[in-house]
Design a protein that fits this description.
Strand content: 25-35%
CATH class: Alpha Beta
Region (Disordered): 153-202, 283-304
Distance between the termini: 78 Å
CATH architecture: 3-Layer(bba) Sandwich
Radius of gyration: 24 Å
Helix content: 10-25%
Biased composition (Basic and acidic residues): 153-162
Protein name: DUF3048 domain-containing protein
Pfam families: DUF3048, DUF3048_C
Shape: globular
Structural class: mainly beta
Domain DUF3048: 49-180, 204-316
Order of helices and strands: HEEEHEHEEEEEEEEEEEEEEEEEE
Number of helices: 3
C-alpha cells in the first residue's frame, strides 16, 4: 500500500499529539512527577493543596545579656555554631510547631549557608549580616527574612538594650500560614545496642562552656551554659532528648573580623567526621556523614550501626576538630 505525502503528515501529527497527551497525563497522575514536593514560586501563598510549610531557622543570640531566650523549647533542632571571639551562636530549627516568639534574633553567618540547605528551601530569620557574606546568602536557595525586609514579623522588647531585644514571630514568616501541618525534620528511633552509661558531658568552646546532665525523671538532658542552667521564658529549663557533639573542620571566613581582628570561623557541615551521640543516658562514639548540602546528616557507631535520635529536641554542637 502506498501512503501519500499528505496522509503521512496527518499520521505523524496524530502520533505527536498522542505522545504529548500521554506525557501530560503522566505528570498529573500521583507519582508521575516530583512537583508535589517543590516549593511554590510565591512562598507566602496558602493554597489548600500546597506543599508542607517551609522549615523556619532562626539565628538566636546566646551571650549572657541575651538570656533567658524565647522559643528554644519548641525547636526541633538547635545547632550551636562557633563564632568570633570564641563565642557561640544558635541556629534554632522549627518544623513541628511554632512558638509565639523566638529570640533575641541576631545576624547570620557563613556557616548557615550550607547548614540549612538540608531542610529544602527554608526560611532563615536573622538580623543583619556582614556585607561580605550577603551575596552568598542571596545566591543560596534560602528565603531570607530580616527585620528590614519584613518588619511586621519582628518586635523589640523593652526589658533589654539593643541588640539583645529583637524577637521574631514565626507565624508571620513566609509560608507559615498554609493549611497543611508542618512535618518534623527528625525521625526518632530505637537506640542500637551498646553505648556507655554517662551522667554528664561537658563541651567547651574557647569562651562558652556547655554542660549536659542526664535526668532520668525527665528522660532528657538538662542543659547549662557557662555554669548556669539554660532557661527559656516560656518553658523554664531547656532540655534535649538527644545531644550530638559533631566534630567539624573550621576555616577562616570571608574577611569578617571581630573587634580583636580575628576572622569569623566557618564550620564545615558537609563531609564526614567523628561524633559522640548522647541519648537515653548513654554515649555512643561514632561518626557523622553528610555527602552533599541537600542531604541530612546521619550518625553511626564505629561499627557502622545507625544511631537515630530519641524523642524530643535535638542539640548539635559543631565543635572544632
Amino acid at each position: 500500500m502506498v501512503v501519500s505525502r499528505s496522509a503521512f503528515r496527518l499520521i505523524a501529527a496524530v502520533v505527536v499529539f498522542l505522545i504529548a497527551a500521554l506525557a501530560v497525563t503522566l505528570l498529573v497522575l500521583p507519582g508521575g512527577g516530583d512537583g508535589e514536593d517543590e516549593a511554590p514560586s510565591d512562598p507566602g501563598a496558602a493554597p489548600s493543596d500546597s506543599p508542607r510549610r517551609p522549615v523556619v531557622v532562626v539565628k538566636v543570640d546566646n551571650v549572657e545579656q541575651a538570656r533567658p531566650q524565647a522559643g528554644l523549647s519548641a525547636a526541633d533542632v538547635v545547632y550551636v555554631e562557633p563564632v568570633e571571639g570564641g563565642l557561640t551562636r544558635l541556629a534554632a530549627v522549627y518544623a513541628s510547631r511554632l512558638p509565639e516568639a523566638v529570640g533575641p534574633v541576631r545576624s547570620a553567618r557563613e556557616t548557615d549557608i550550607a547548614l540549612v540547605r538540608q531542610f529544602g528551601t527554608p526560611v532563615l530569620a536573622y538580623s543583619g549580616g556582614a556585607p561580605e557574606i550577603e551575596p552568598l546568602l542571596k545566591r543560596a536557595p534560602i528565603t531570607l527574612v530580616t527585620d528590614k525586609t519584613r518588619p511586621e514579623a519582628y518586635f523589640r522588647g523593652d526589658d533589654r538594650p539593643i541588640p539583645h531585644n529583637l524577637y521574631v514571630r514565626p507565624q508571620r514568616l513566609p509560608g507559615q500560614q498554609r493549611e497543611r501541618e508542618p512535618e518534623p525534620v527528625t525521625r526518632p528511633g530505637a537506640a542500637p545496642e551498646g553505648g556507655t552509661p554517662v551522667d554528664a558531658r561537658a563541651v567547651d568552646f574557647r569562651d562558652a562552656r556547655y554542660r549536659f546532665t542526664w535526668s532520668g525523671a525527665d528522660g532528657r538532658w538538662r542543659i547549662s551554659l557557662d555554669g548556669s542552667p539554660l532557661t527559656t521564658r516560656e518553658a523554664g529549663r531547656v532540655t534535649a532528648g538527644t545531644v550530638v557533639v559533631q566534630r567539624v573542620a573550621v576555616r577562616e571566613g570571608r574577611q569578617v573580623r571581630d573587634s580583636g581582628g580575628q576572622l569569623s570561623p566557618v564550620a564545615g557541615t558537609v563531609g564526614r567526621g567523628e561524633a559522640t551521640i548522647l541519648r537515653d543516658g548513654k554515649a555512643f562514639d561514632g561518626t557523622w556523614s553528610r555527602p552533599s548540602p541537600e542531604e541530612p546528616t546521619t550518625y553511626r557507631t564505629r561499627g557502622g550501626q545507625r544511631v537515630p535520635v530519641a524523642e524530643g529536641p535535638v542539640w548539635v554542637l559543631l565543635t572544632p576538630r
